[in-house]
Amino acid sequence: MNRILIIGSGASGMAAAISAAQANSSAQITILDGLDRIGKKILATGNGRCNLTNAQIAPGHYHTQNTARLNELLADMPAERPLTFFRELGLYCTEEDRGRIYPYSRQASMVLDVLRLALRRYHIQIQQNCTVRSLSVDKKVFTAQTESGKTFCADAVILAAGGRAAPKQGTNGTSYPLALQMGHRYARLYPCLVPLRCGQQTSMLKQLKGIRVICRATLFDGKQKLTEELGEVQLTDYGLSGIPALQLSCWMNKPIQEQAYTVRLDLFPDWQHNELRSILQQRVKQYPTDKIEDNLLGLINKKLLFAALETLHLTPIDRPSSSLKRQDIDALVSLLKGWDFPITGVQTWDHAQVTGGGVFLNEIDNRFRSVKQPGLFLAGEVLDIAGDCGGYNLHWAWCSGITAGEAAAEYIAHE
Ligand SMILES: Cc1cc2nc3c(=O)[nH]c(=O)nc-3n(C[C@H](O)[C@H](O)[C@H](O)COP(=O)(O)OP(=O)(O)OC[C@H]3O[C@@H](n4cnc5c(N)ncnc54)[C@H](O)[C@@H]3O)c2cc1C
């Protein structure tokens, strides 16, 4: 009994294969992947630089239905874990701002190169163009059948076939039916780290398309504040993008049509309402004959300012500043400090970086063994977990893969 089959050659699948080979030199390991090349997604990560983990791993950077289980699992996953794994493979890393860790070469291709080299060193078989359609088990032997009719048998299986996000990189959700076939259930899937759509404001957004603004973005569900992010929001013709908007999407785990999600932008996060108000009042007082459009120059992006004046019907903007009443300035301050963008949807799975939801975390044990099916292990994004931007998703993929690989190697040695 020594065959381990790994479904998926992404981050978690490759880490699982290498750690299984390191733990059990007699293991015969085969990876199946639907794509014609391995690790395609890794090349796209971190804008081609691969933000592979983070020095500040903490539960607060992850989203799941089961935070208690997440805390237990993350306790065994310090940042040092993937760093040690990669250092042993010859890859050196470096830390940038906010704990983000990259390969020293800042090349995602280098990460893939060292993984491929390790797969070769350990004689791990890789079968490409093999999309697994069904998985069954009989008398402790697993059988995986591919779309093209090939059959692979094994004594242990690691399901590392990712989620639904970025389907062009091989992940279109075929992992979940395989989990169901093994008796698992999964939490509702939703796209995460994805731009937000604001359908009702399309005509205004078309004028603001391309503007980037450092602001505080706060997400509300009705009147309830869910979370906030500070950073550079990008206005697009359909809605909001940029890291703060992507991060907020991870909190939208309920059907958007049924929710009243709103993003409130504070375009002056460094100033209190009264500070901004006195600045505006002072400028109007100092230059009362200046046109409104000229008087307010130098504060924020011109197009944004004009859109704010238009939204408040403080037009025409070429009239003298002295025509602005006290309540007009109050209204302008309120809008600039709290501009509401009702969310009508998110971009498609093609634009999402990760998948929210997935196989319930209480259906695996601390070593990523299935509690439903002995000999089955699950790793990576197929599980109910989505991380923030910053290396948290790859961290989860490597660590869960390493642990699942070790546990599978142990399983075949003892059964
Ligand atoms: C553009 C982009 C940039 C990103 N940047 C970062 C970043 O910088 N830092 C970070 O932490 N995270 C990043 N992520 C997220 C991160 O890449 C993923 O969370 C991580 O790769 C998930 O690893 P995984 O092994 O679970 O799945 P994946 O890496 O998605 O691999 C799954 C593999 O399984 C294969 N597969 C799927 N179904 C089947 C099947 N039925 N049969 C056979 N094979 C199958 C797929 O072809 C794929 O190769 C990024 C994601 C994207 C899309």
Automatic annotation (TrEMBL):
RsdA/BaiN/AoA(So)-like Rossmann fold-like domain: residues covered: 3-406
InterPro entries noted in UniProt: BaiN-like (IPR004792), RsdA/BaiN/AoA(So)-like_dom (IPR055178), RsdA/BaiN/AoA(So)_Rossmann (IPR057661)
Keywords: Signal
Signal peptide from the UniProt entry: 1-23
Residue ranges occupied by any RsdA/BaiN/AoA(So)-like insert domain in the UniProt entry: 190-354
Protein name, per record: Aminoacetone oxidase family FAD-binding enzyme
UniProt organism field: Butyricicoccus intestinisimiae
